Structures are given as C-alpha cells and as structure tokens.
Amino acid sequence: MKKLKIVTIGGGSSYTPELMEGFIKRYKELPITEIWLVDIEEGKEKLQIVGDMAKRMWEASGYPCEVHLTLDRREALKDADFVTTQFRVGLLDARIKDERIPLSHGILGQETNGAGGIFKAFRTIPVILDIIKDIKELCPNAWLINFTNPSGMITEAAIKYGGFEKTVGLCNVPIRYMMMASEALDIPVEDLNFKFAGLNHFHWHRVWDKAGKERTNEIIEAVYNPNSTKEFKGMENIKDIKMLYEQIKDLALLPCSYHRYYYVSDDMLKNELEEFKKGETRAEVVKKLEAQLFELYKDINLDHKPEQLSKRGGAYYSDAACEVINSIYNDKKTEMVVSTRNNGTISDLPYDSIVEVSSIITSKGPEPLNWGKFDSAPRALLQHMKGMEETVIEAAYTGNYNKALHAFTINPLIPSGQIAKDLLDEMLIAHKNHLPQFKEKIEELENQ
Amino acid sequence: MKKLKIVTIGGGSSYTPELMEGFIKRYKELPITEIWLVDIEEGKEKLQIVGDMAKRMWEASGYPCEVHLTLDRREALKDADFVTTQFRVGLLDARIKDERIPLSHGILGQETNGAGGIFKAFRTIPVILDIIKDIKELCPNAWLINFTNPSGMITEAAIKYGGFEKTVGLCNVPIRYMMMASEALDIPVEDLNFKFAGLNHFHWHRVWDKAGKERTNEIIEAVYNPNSTKEFKGMENIKDIKMLYEQIKDLALLPCSYHRYYYVSDDMLKNELEEFKKGETRAEVVKKLEAQLFELYKDINLDHKPEQLSKRGGAYYSDAACEVINSIYNDKKTEMVVSTRNNGTISDLPYDSIVEVSSIITSKGPEPLNWGKFDSAPRALLQHMKGMEETVIEAAYTGNYNKALHAFTINPLIPSGQIAKDLLDEMLIAHKNHLPQFKEKIEELENQ
Amino acid sequence: MKKLKIVTIGGGSSYTPELMEGFIKRYKELPITEIWLVDIEEGKEKLQIVGDMAKRMWEASGYPCEVHLTLDRREALKDADFVTTQFRVGLLDARIKDERIPLSHGILGQETNGAGGIFKAFRTIPVILDIIKDIKELCPNAWLINFTNPSGMITEAAIKYGGFEKTVGLCNVPIRYMMMASEALDIPVEDLNFKFAGLNHFHWHRVWDKAGKERTNEIIEAVYNPNSTKEFKGMENIKDIKMLYEQIKDLALLPCSYHRYYYVSDDMLKNELEEFKKGETRAEVVKKLEAQLFELYKDINLDHKPEQLSKRGGAYYSDAACEVINSIYNDKKTEMVVSTRNNGTISDLPYDSIVEVSSIITSKGPEPLNWGKFDSAPRALLQHMKGMEETVIEAAYTGNYNKALHAFTINPLIPSGQIAKDLLDEMLIAHKNHLPQFKEKIEELENQ
Amino acid sequence: MKKLKIVTIGGGSSYTPELMEGFIKRYKELPITEIWLVDIEEGKEKLQIVGDMAKRMWEASGYPCEVHLTLDRREALKDADFVTTQFRVGLLDARIKDERIPLSHGILGQETNGAGGIFKAFRTIPVILDIIKDIKELCPNAWLINFTNPSGMITEAAIKYGGFEKTVGLCNVPIRYMMMASEALDIPVEDLNFKFAGLNHFHWHRVWDKAGKERTNEIIEAVYNPNSTKEFKGMENIKDIKMLYEQIKDLALLPCSYHRYYYVSDDMLKNELEEFKKGETRAEVVKKLEAQLFELYKDINLDHKPEQLSKRGGAYYSDAACEVINSIYNDKKTEMVVSTRNNGTISDLPYDSIVEVSSIITSKGPEPLNWGKFDSAPRALLQHMKGMEETVIEAAYTGNYNKALHAFTINPLIPSGQIAKDLLDEMLIAHKNHLPQFKEKIEELENQ
C-alpha cells in the first residue's frame, strides 16, 4: 500500500473533526495512510482531546489510517505529502484582544481585514515562514494547504517571502455564497456555474445556470431588493446586516459578506460595539462555543463530527481542504475558489499578487480561470485592499514600525491619525509575546 | 498686430484680478489683444464690478488689450485662442451646502474629494460638457485651461466624455509645495527640481537639488519630525493639522495637503465640526472674504490686485493659468504640474485616466515626465481615489442614482451605509436646481 | 422534442461527412433536430453530392435529424442555435494562387500565416462580417463556431469588427500535438494534462502527467534530440521538417508545426519550391484529394465517413467543432484549445486580442485558463505575429492599400521591399473578384 | 578649483578628438580638470597618437585641463565624475568578421542589429560588466555614459545585470534625423520639436513646429514621396536605400535609418553583397578611414578636429556625450534622445527594459517624456526586437549556446534553420579570443 501522509499543523483545533470527516468521506479516492496532528506545548491538552476523538472517528470508519499526535513539528513533516495549517498564534485569547482592543477605541476589530486581521498577520507570518523552512528541508515535494487566516495574506507571505510556490490558500466563504445562490434561484448548487474573483474575504462573483444564462441580477433582486420575500441565513461569523439594494443593483456582481464592513460600516460598527459591551464579541462567542465543543469531544463514545461544529464560521473550511487535496492527488480538476498566484488572472492587480479566484484544481496545482478587469467602483476597493495587504505583509516580514503604522493608516476600517497610532501601540504591547519582529519597538513603547 | 484672444468663463470671479495681473506681467511675451470675461445672469453684478476693475488694471498697464464683459458665452468663444474656466455652478452658496450638509451628519464635506467635491462634480460636469460643445463649434483650435474644481475630474470628463483633447487642468497646490520645499531646505525654489505624480488634490512629490541629490527625506524631517524647529505656513484653505512623523518617515515621498483627510481624518473632522458649529466653515469664510474683496474692487481708484486676494486658497491658480498659456503660446517648455492624460505615465492607473503630473508645457500641449510605479501604500490610496473619481464622473454623466450612491459608498471620507444614502438624498434635493441629470430621481425623493 | 438547429456555412465542403460523423457520435447527448448545409451558387454541385452523403449518414444512424441543403443563407440562419463556418472564398483555386504566386517569386506562400494567409484573410473577412450581420438579425442567440482559416484572424475580425462576442475559433493543430505527446511518452492522451497558449497556428504548449509532473522536456528529447529513436508522423499539410534540437532544448515549451516556418525557414522554402516546380503545392495536392473524395461521396452506397478524409490536414477539425458545440450545449466543461478573447489571459498581448488558449468550454462559452507571461524569445515572435495579424485585419476591413503593404512588410515570411510590393500587387489583381474592399486600388494597378 | 574628472575607456579611438572638441567648446560651463584616456595593450600605439593629439587640442584651447594616457583602468577610474565608454572589443578586425562572415553565407552582417551586432554584444557585455565592477568600487557616484555599440543592449546589460542605474546610453542617429527634418521643412532645427521612442537603432519619431502643429506627414512627403524634389544625404554608415513611400505614408511616424534593414531588406542585402565582393564592407571602409585619420593625428601641428572625422558614421556621437555630461553636471535640462530605463514610458515594452526615448537630461539623470502605445504595425517590430535583445543579452551573460542559437533564430535579419546554426558556430570560433563565456562550447565546436 502506497504511503500517503498528511500533516496538520494546529492539529488541536476544534475543526479537526471536520477535517477527519472530510478525509473519511473521501477515503476510497484518497487512501491516506497516516495523519499527523501537530500542536505546540500550550495546545497539548486540546491536541490530546481532539486527537483521541480523531482516532475514534477513523476507528469507526473502518479504514486503516494511523493518527499520530505530536508536539514535534519536524518529526511530523518528514516526507509528508500534504501539509495543512489551521493554527492560531496566541490562541483565541489573542483573537479576543484583536477584537476588543479596537472596539475599546470605538473601532471595528475585524479579525481578518481590520486591525485584528493585521495583527493576526503580524503574529502568523513569522511562524508560517518558519514552517516553510522546515517543509523545504523535510518534505520539499509536499503541497501546503493553508487555512489559517488571514488566508490570503498568509498565502502571499508563503509564496512571495517564503518562496514556496506549492502553497494554496483556502476559505469557506465562497462555498457559502454558492449555497446562497442556489437558495435564491431554487436551483441545486451543482446546476449552477460560478465565477469568483478578488482577494480572500474580499471577492465578488457572478452566477450562471446550466443553459449559460447569467442569473447574477436575479440573485441581487432576491437577496437585496427590500421587496424580496426570500430569507437568507447569513454567515455565522458575521452579523447579518444587509447592504443596501441601491448599492448593489447596478454592480452586476455579487459581493461577499466581508464587503459589509465597507458598504454598511455604520451598522456594522454599531452592532459590534453592542456585542463588545455585552462581552459577546465574535471571539468571545467562539471561545465559549469551542469550550463546549471540547467538552463534547471528551466523550469517549463520540466518534463522528457533532452538529454543533457547523455553527463555527469556519464550517466547510476543512471540507474544502480535503477536496483540494483530493483534487490535487487525483487530478480531479474540481473547480474551486482558492488563493493562488495572480499571474495576470485579474488584470487590475500586480502580477505577483495572491488572489482568490475560481480555479481548476489539477495535480499540478490550481489553474485559475482568467477574469480580466473590474469596473471602476469594485476596482477602487479591490486595489486599495491589495495595496493594504502588501503593506501589512511587508511590515510583518521586516518588523518596520512605520510600515505597520502605514498599514493602519490606509486600512479602511481604521480611522487615521493619532487614534490609529494609539491603537497600534496598544496592540503591539498586548501581543508582544508573539511579535518577535517588533521586539525592539515594543520595548521602546513600554519604556515611554 | 496678430489677434490673441482669451476667454474666461466665470469672469466675474474674485480671482479675475490675479489673472489680469498674470497676463499683464507676461504681456511682452504674450501680447493678448482681447480678453472676454463671460458670466451668467446671476453673476452679472459681480462681473460688472470685477470687469471694471480688470479694465482699470489694463489701462494702468499701458498695454493695448481690450476687455469685454458679456453674458453671451457663444459670442465670446468665437475664434478664441485660449479659454479658461473658473466658474462655480450655484456660486458660493452651493459650496456652503456642500460643506454644511455633510457636517450636519458628522461627516467631512470637503469641497473637492469628499461629498462636497462629488456634488461639485455633479453640478459642473454637465456645464463643462456644454461649454465644450460650443468650443468645438466656435473655436475648435483653442486650448481649454480648466481651473474649476474638482479640477482633475472636470478635466477627465472634458477629455473622456467631451472628447476635447486640448484640455489642461490646473491646480495651485503643487506651487505651494515647491515653496514649502524651498523654505525647508533654505534653497531658492528655482534651484530645486521636483517630480509630482498622482491625481488632482491627491499627489506626491520628490525633491532634488541642482547637484542631483535627492532631498525628499530632509524635507520630511524638517516638516514632520516633531523635533524640527522649522515653522511652515499651511495652505489657507486647509486647516494646518500635521500628519504624523511616523506615517511619512519611510514613505520616501512628500504628501500633499489633501492627504491629511486620509492620514489624520480624526483631527480633520473634529476641527471642521468646530468650524461648522461656529458658522465658520471654509465656504462661509470664503464668502465673507469674497464680499470684502468685491467691496475693494468697487473702488474706482484701485487698479492693481489687492494683497487680500492672496488669502484665498486659490492664490497662484490664476498665475499658473497664465504661465500654462504662455508656455503653450511660446513653446517655452516650462515644467509645470498639470492634469493631463495618463497614457502610461503612472503605470498603476488606467491608460485613459487624467493624472496630475510634472509635465513640460510645449506648444503641442503638456508632455508628462514618465513616473512609473508607486509603492504599495501610496498605490493603495491612489488607485482607490481614481476608481472613485471614475465612478463619480460616470454618475455625473449618466445621472444614474445607484452609481452616485456607489461613489458615496466607496468615498473614503464618507462612512458607508444608510448614513451615506441619507446624505446623498439630502444633497440631491438641496442642489436640485443644478442637477438636471438627476431630475427624475430628485422628484421621486421629494415625493417620498 | 426540443428544437436544436445547426447551420453549416460552406456545407458543400469535403469535411462535412466528418462533421456529420461527429454529430451522429454525440447524438445521445446532443439531439440535433435539424442541420442546414448552406453553400453558394458556385458550390451547388458539391453541396448536392456531400449533402446527399450527409443524408445517407443520418439515415444509417437511425436518428431523426433532418438535413436541409440550401443556397439561401438567410433562410437557413433563422433561429439557428449554432452556426459553423467552413467556407473557402474563391474555393481551392484561390488557395492555389495563394501558394503559387508567392512561390513564383521565390517566397513561401503559406496559406495561413504567410502571403497566402493574408489574402485568405482579405477575402474572408468581408464575408464573415456579412454573415454576422445576418446572424445578429436572424439568430442573435446562436453561437458562431468558426473553423474557416486563418481561424484566429477571422475570429478577431468577427469579435472586434463584427461585435459578435459569441464567436469561438477552432483549429485541429492542438489535438495533433496532444497525440504526439501521448506517443512520445507512451501515455494515453487522457492521462496527460496540457496547457496551450499563443495564437492560431502559432502556439506553444506544456505537458504534465496525472501525477502533476511536468513532462515537456522529455517530449522535447523524444521529438527533437537527434539521438532519439522515436518516430513521429507530422501534420499532413506541413512538410515534416524538424526544428533543431538546440533551438528547442532550453525553451521549456513545445512549439507547433507552424513554428517551422520561423525556425527552419531555409528548408521549408527549399521544399516548397520543389513542390512548386512539380505542380504539387499543398493546394494542388488537396485539390486532387478533394476530387477523389467527391468521387467517393457520389457512391450512393457510402453512408459513413471514408478513411481517406483523414489524410486532409484538417482532420479532427470538425470533430473539435462538434465537441465545442456539445460542451456549450451541455455545459460539459471539456478542456479544449480555442481562439477566444484574451482579456489578460496572455499578459504579453493586448487585452482585446483573440488568442488560442486552453479553455474550459462551458454553456456560457470558453473560460480560458490563465497563462501569464512568456519568456523573451517566444514572446518576441508572438508579439510580432499579433501585431502583424492586427495590421492584416485592419487592412482587410478598411481596404487601405498602405496598411496591406505594411502587413506584407512586417510579415516574417515575406522579404520586405519592392519584392513584397510586387507580390502584393500581383495577388490583388489575381484575387480581384473576391476583394471588393480593394476595388479602387486594383483598378488603379490594372491601369498602370 | 573644484575637481571634475572624466575617464574615457577606449580612449585610443579615432573619435577622441571629437570628444575633446566637444569638451573644449563647453569648457566655460563644464570646467573639466582632468581627462583620463584609457586603453588596452593592443591599443597602446593608437592611444599614444590620439592622446598626443588630445593634449595639443587642450593646449591650443588655453584651458587648464590635464590629459592623462594610461593602460591602467583602475587607476584612471579612481574618483571619476563621469566615465565614457567607446571601446571596441577585438578592434575593427572583429567588426570585419562580424560583417564578412554573415555575408559569406549570403546574410546581412549588420554590426548593431544583425548577426554582427549580436556578436558585438557577446564580446562587449562581459567587458562592460567588468568595468562596472570597478566603477562600483572606485567611483560609485560617477555617471557612465556609454556609446559603445550596440548601445541599447550594452546599456541594458549594465543596468539589469550590472546593477548600475547611473548608466546612460547614447547614439547619434536621432541627431541626424533632427537635421533631416530641418532640411525637409526648411526650418532651423531649434525651431522644431521632436519626440523619439523605440530602441537604439530602432526608433520612430514625430515632428512639430513651434506653433504646435505636427509636421510629420510633410516630412514623409518630402523624404519618401517619389515626386518630392528634395534631396537628402543619408547616414554615412548605411547605404542610402529608401523605404517605399507606400510603406511609410500611413505610418504617422518617421522611421530611422536602421528600419531599412526591415523594410527594404532585399535591396539592403543586394547592396552589401556587392560591397562584400569588392572588399568594401562598411568595416573595411572604416578601417581605411581610420588609418587615414591616425595618419592625420600624427601631425604634431594638428591641434583641432580634422574635417575628415565627420565622415565616420559616428559623427555627433561624442558631441552628444559631451552634452549629456554637461546637462547632468549643470542640470541644464537639455532635451536629448538617450537609452534609459523604460519604467512604463513605452507601454508596449517591459517595465525594466532599456528604451531610447526623448528625455530631459537633469542632474538626477534622464527624465523620459512619456510616450504610451504604438500602433500595431510598428509595435509588432518593436516588441520583436526587444525580445530579441533580451535573448541576446541573456545569452551573452550566461554563455548558454542554445540561447545564442535562439537569438540567431529569432533575429529578423538572419534566415532561420541550419544556416543560422552554421553561421553562429563559425562566428563563435572566429571570435573565440573575446568570448570567455562560450569557451567550453567553442572548444566542443572546434573538436567536431
């Protein structure tokens, strides 16, 4: 039997059961022989709980896949075929800071695109580059499937600064929008065609039916027209505040949930400030949810993914990861939306950028479907976000404080000026244990 | 003696004496034979006052130039060599609305880049296109020198939608920054070299001395370093709130005054809200200043530009216009910063955009010095602004309400969501007399 | 039963039986209800022969598809779902001139990229634009599948000048190269992945196996290394003269058969001059072959495609056409190489160019897989050819003689100077009956 | 008195007196204190002759500039302010081979764009990179003014591979075309405006008068219309064979002399073959001319540039070099045509290419006037040449034989195939003493 080794970094994550479920479901196509769940000292307990759960799931499946739990990343990586990353530097407590500190200044935290997302990138990029160093040494032919957020920026850092081209970034948001389109049109999702393009958590899409007719505008009507009778469930991790019909009507594109931060920033902020006051920011909710999940996972009789996991915003993420791996392994040519090198796919963005686009997943990696140009209004926001992302990544890589302030200054969710600087400084100090690149500046700030 | 005919649309403007002074100063190179000051019925009285003043100025100069005052634009345009535009649709009262209505919602008005600027574009674009129709018929070989704000967008509309390539847009901001550089380095302005690139009211520049040494960073230190002992006078029309040293230090570019709205938005807003409460928004201040100026102009003994005119934010505007005309007429090849077609000058912006860049002004028009690419952080903002401008112009041209809302949504100075829509609607109604293209929508709004 | 109407313009072509075979083979997926074979007066007899043959083929198949023969194009087009074009303006005699006249000057004729190809474009473009006018009126929702050569230029004219976006250009060359790769690697074609990019008759490709490993260089070794023991059959319509191993070895791309004209121009010319002397230019050979085919088609017992048809260079063309139609109709997402709008797929070519690239054929048309940039050496030739194509199309559209001469001047297969002008003039006169756009110039030439 | 040190590499060149004359003429603006003429052992005698002549010229001028003659390049470079390069690796005998070997195969040699030019690049690029290594160490603030041919490729190698941004490439062809325009229009050259863009020896230009009126088409009529009565002297180094009127008439651009190789290749070849037979190739003519010049230079009474020097094709080259140096030194902002980094100036060419364009020469180097896009026909050739140049430079830098063959294959002046390979091989062997990078391959070829 041919070896097929998967390594999951951040294996102690509450999402691991979904990942296991995804692999088990695909076992006949994707006969994994060993899975290594890797975590760090601080995550040891969670790794044990979720790792035992994973073992039970495989046992129940009847498939002969070995599950290894380890804190030794290098041992795990040796000769891996696929590496998935779902770790969270600083754990959920760091995310709580990412969200609460900005809100304490009256500013949206937003753990992927806002101040929180910038700090998540600052914490994660040094770690992902370290992992890549190991991968290049220990399993240079492996594929790295990243679903650690901010997924687009992490993928860009991995490819541009880490020089590891075989990195694919993943997100579950596109899947949600495929489902929504299906719901809006009453057409099964497999009978629709989609084209997505943009950045991670910042993409647009168009929808066609099997007869080749574009249905984008009908979905706009169903979702955004106030006279529409359709009801839609939003994304679990984003408050369901709708963009205005008139904002979307002539766009000829469907926005994604994160666009709400840019289209209805007033309501989004109001809402998050309320949650903040109640101690119910998304991070806090997730922390409780996660604690409940780990309680469930401790049940030695539980050997399948519990329903409750789907309430996490990240649902489908792991399933998408399994499908990417499956499609690469078997050259299945599944059409998926992934973060990959632009190379001209979106004409409005730099050639070497990472973009999130509809791609055919082949054994040689994702082949993006060409997109071309955007109209002026979406282009304005898209180009802004990409420039912001590049600035964040550069600051994360170099530890240049002024670049970091520049990233805060141009981030559309952060008001600029002294307020942005104060927020940056406070967050640097709060996260100091996970920001080696900013060490010197943080000490200077602490001594002021 | 060869005819050389200049037509000034918006001739009743308080700036006209500066324009006259500029022409008189250059008469030996630029022997103008006739100047036609054109205005509309509502501006008749001001035209008479400032026109009489203009006549006195020429008389005092001793040069044989005829000054004509007229409300008949078409008569004036016949066979013109140069047409300058400095009109303000809706006069200063419209500007007061542009500033006060947004501030009444707690939002920056900003008469060129913000909500106010968008409405100024909405009011002005139909008029400039009308003027161009006349120019094409009556003086197709003339050059159109536009200094009506928002100068970049008006120039883009004139060239892209009006199809009149011989349009040059002007602004006085670059001149101010040349002076500031000179002050910062204690080097006469003529001993410095500059390179500006970006958009109108949204450009950056670099500075070199005559030995070819770049001095940009020294100016950054002199202007932005809190330890600097240099004092600078700001632009009269923009509150002198400084950007933070750390924001600028690693930029390797000098920003312009309008960047403050994007770099220190918090202070800018606070300040304008205070002015708003005191009834001292810039528009209101200008209105008082203008009334004083017209009082002065009535003095039949006054035959030269009064000192007080320099306090207007637009000082040097008219002088720049005279110099552009002079340089075109005499093929002087003066290096100036003008709004002109991009054609690849700035690689980050669309080929057919209007950009504001250092150019050699020749008898065949401006020849932009190539600029190339920006770094990610300034690029982010620049591309955003251009996409926003394009959306504004398209909305102004088509009268499409949804495009107008989109322009408001993506404008960085306007919070997005219902608040933006409410503001848009209120401004549409407030300016209804000057927005023929939105007539139908405004009626609908009024009937709600 | 739902109507599904196919119209084939140039229905009297000897390729029609292959087309019928392709449709019959796919009938269960693609239940065509009516096929209209259209031809012109001069092709009436051939239409009757091949049309009767087509009818026998369908009868033998047992499927209820009606075959109509007509000279009335407009009647045929009414409500068509798909229109295929395989006509040859001036018939094979025109092609004989395209090849023999240049060779009589010692110059390669080359019926698609050389002087012959330019004249084929000159004759065909006015006709295709006429057809499109009819399509827009009579069946605006149809897809136009063009396999009239020069397929890339005709498709570019149809989309750019005809404004008919639903045009797809086809060629059989890529299929041949897929087969060659399969032969070189001893791997079934369905177990290989390909990526093609370039222009019609001027593309490169790369090959991977199902495990994602690139095999391009192995194919280069098998095909071009003089020590290789593999034997390959060339394309029937291009003399099998090999490019040099050293030319290809470091290219990391596989060229196509038409590249021989640019890589081993000396041998190609020598060979064609020999054929010319013997009266065996490709056109003359084809004419004989075609006469034989029509003799076969007359046999009232023949009701399937005869083997001999495969000897034509165009074999697989019709099958590719059937598959494109099938994939559009059924949204099959077959990966095929087609001529379609660039839109940034190949970064080195203009956005609005037609390119020939690997695409997913969906019900909304071809979705090109993004390609990006070429290395300098292939880029040099590719950009040259595209500029040449654009010049040809513009000359064909406008009838501007100087543009036509410019196209000849920059065509790499035609020596420049007086010789090119003499050749152009002689060909204009020789083809005068099919060049309405050059009428005036031709008369002038004849009267010299 | 402030030091101002000029170093001329290839100081023994027959052009040196023109250079001296140019410096003497400009002495009041450009007070050079020392000139170092550097040459190699093989050029020692010529260096002595021309160096003595140079000394006499300065003495006659009365200006206190020291002239140093040396074979020690490093000593000369120490603290230089400007370095000019006018050396010829392998001397004129190498050029004779560059021209005669191709012609012996019936192929144009062409010492800048053809096979000869490719070999000149192969020989020169290793040397220029060596010089740059010394410059970076010994005079890192100097400007390198290169007028060694092929000037564009050498400049591209210096900047891209040598990483020395302060390199400016020069050519005298544009000056000739300014004079021709002046002659054609009967307008003094200083009353005309020009815009040049393209590559070295492959550029186009447009011409305007001081009133801003374009005069390009009038010059086309005067030069190319067979009915024109104007007579023009061609470039001394290129046979005066005219392009056809119909080729140029609708171009709206004026070509340069080297375009003849691509527009009237037949006549150019015929002519050079005749010269070849007579032993009068350009290189041989130049060698005789040069011998005569050195005879003149030996005259100890000669202390000014002799008239005969102007007959060399390179006349004005040295004067252009003096003017570039003067304009950089004094920030004169002279408009000149130089080879410099593209950075988007010509949209059709790669961002990092070297292009030859109208530029303002400032103390910070050349500032190119933006050009934008070309029409399809000139674009085709231009892009081809740039890709060819890149391939040549890469082959020259790496010593990759296959790349070299590729450069030969795609060079439009060399027929492709075995003939190109044979020519390449023969030239490699013939030039083996100056091609260290191809050493191994040459040995292999010699042993075949």
From TrEMBL, chains A, B, C, D:
One Gene Ontology term of the molecular function aspect: metal ion binding
EC number from the UniProt entry: 3.2.1.86
Cofactor field: NAD(+)
EC class (word): hydrolase
Cofactor mode of binding and number, as noted: Binds 1 NAD(+) per subunit.
Keywords, ordered alphabetically: Carbohydrate metabolism, Glycosidase, Hydrolase, Manganese, Metal-binding, NAD
SUPFAM superfamilies membership: LDH C-terminal domain-like, NAD(P)-binding Rossmann-fold domains
Protein's GO biological process: carbohydrate metabolic process
Signal peptide start and end residues: none
Domain Glycosyl hydrolase family 4 C-terminal: 196-414
Stated family: Belongs to the glycosyl hydrolase 4 family.
Self-association and partners: Homotetramer.
PANTHER family in alphabetical order: 6-PHOSPHO-BETA-GLUCOSIDASE (PTHR32092:SF5), 6-PHOSPHO-BETA-GLUCOSIDASE-RELATED (PTHR32092)
Protein name: 6-phospho-beta-glucosidase
Organism per entry: Clostridium felsineum
